[in-house]
Amino acid sequence: MYDRCPYKFKLLVLQGRKDLVQPPSAALALGTSVHKALQEIFLLSPPDRTEQRLLELLKASFLREFRGIDRDEMQQMWDRGKKAMRLFVQHEDMEADALFLEEILFVNLPDFTVSGKLDRGHRDPDGKHHIVDYKTGKQLPDQMQLQIYSILGSDHLSVDELRVSYLYVEREGNDRWITYEVGESEIEAAIESVTDQVARISADKNYPALTGPLCDWCQCLPVCDAGKTYLANTPSESDLAFD
Ligand code: SF4
């Protein structure tokens, strides 16, 4: 978040402005429900990890997460969630032995602590350890997040070679999995990169607002003059007369 907009980082992370926290949205509820169902299915014994059981787990989680959310949006998200779970059973190894599920991990580095929640860890058929992060929707891969997963995963599993993946559960094509092979040099580079980032954040005295198209969806917009000015000066389709 710091690289995308230091001012947003200051408001949400450093100041922890509760008035800017986004209310629960249908997209967030879908993500939470899918994560919960995929956590619970791997706690069952392999013969019980069926499509029907996965859909039952999704439904139970959905009913909790979608309390208070518009019914039409809920229906749309249910259809997306159901499709994602069916794709999961069709495409993924339902017998995989999870090494951990939804685990919150910490690693102490010399000047700070790295922490994060890892969705799942397992071993691939070739024996390599594999950290998997489930994604719903179209979120782009985040380099810093992957580096943090590499640091946490290698420390937790005591390995210096592993795979780290994003699994886009709603996709069917070749871009369903985005996987990075991580070795000792990548882990060292990840530690260096996270250390640099922490140093840059600590040295920043201004936390400038970086405006751009994402301002339109930013929860900090109500208190951000730079974002408001940027959007006020950005032409919209209705300002242009296309013939
Ligand atoms: S509205 Fe734009 S400039 Fe302002 S905090 Fe959000 S992303 Fe940054």
Brief account:
By secondary structure, the protein is an alpha+beta fold.
Mean pLDDT: 90
Question: In percent, how helical is the residue content?
Answer: 40-55%
Give the radius of gyration: 20 Å
Class based on secondary structure composition and strand pairing: alpha+beta
Major sheet attributes: 5 strands, mixed
Globular, elongated, flat, extended or rod-shaped: what is the shape? globular
Instruction: Provide the low-confidence segments as ranges.
Output: none
Number-wise, the strands total 5
Question: Topology of this protein?
Answer:
Elements (H helix, E strand, L loop, with lengths): L5 H9 L11 H16 L9 H15 L5 H21 L6 E11 L4 E11 L5 E7 L7 H15 L4 E7 L8 E6 L1 H20 L21 H8 L11
Parallel strand pairs: 3-4
Antiparallel strand pairs: 1-2, 2-3, 4-5
The structure holds iron/sulfur cluster (SF4).
